[in-house]
Amino acid sequence: MPKVTFIDLEGKSHQCDIANGLSVMEGAIAGGVPGILAICGGSCACSTCHAYVDDAWADKVGGPNEIEDATLDLANDRRTHSRLTCQITMQPEFEGLVIHVAKND
Ligand code: FES
């Protein structure tokens, strides 16, 4: 299973194994990563799974689609590499992915 490293708001890193086909959000919740709330359960409606894709991974992961883009406008402190982690589906190419948790409240 691909490993994803989450950096939380305090700079602490959390490594999670996330099966291909699951969302990055699902992996974060299963791994107890603080700050990923996912209140809507992954339906792209709440923005509380907001995070920043690490600069080194941004091209590979890509940007949001139109629906995600609209929901991201609800997020706190949206930045260039903001994504909703419920909308990033794990695949083998994402082995080693690094995600920075945003301030979700
Ligand atoms: S879990 Fe609600 S938008 Fe991702």
Topology:
Layout: E1 3-7, E2 13-17, H1 24-30, E3 50-53, H2 58-61, H3 66-72, E4 82-84, E5 97-101
Parallel strand pairs: 1-5
Antiparallel strand pairs: 1-2, 3-4, 3-5
The structure holds FE2/S2 (inorganic) cluster (FES).
Q: Which range does the strand content fall in? A: 15-25%
What is the strand arrangement across the widest sheet?
2-1-5-3-4
**Biggest pleated-sheet summary:** 5 strands, mixed
Shape: globular
Please report the first level of CATH classification, the CATH class: Alpha Beta
* CATH architecture assignment: Roll
* Share in helix: 10-25%
Number of strands: 5
Small molecules bound in the structure, each named once: FE2/S2 (inorganic) cluster
The CATH topology annotation reads as Ubiquitin-like (UB roll)
Let me know the average pLDDT: 97
In the residues, how many domains can be counted?
1
Note poorly predicted spans.
none
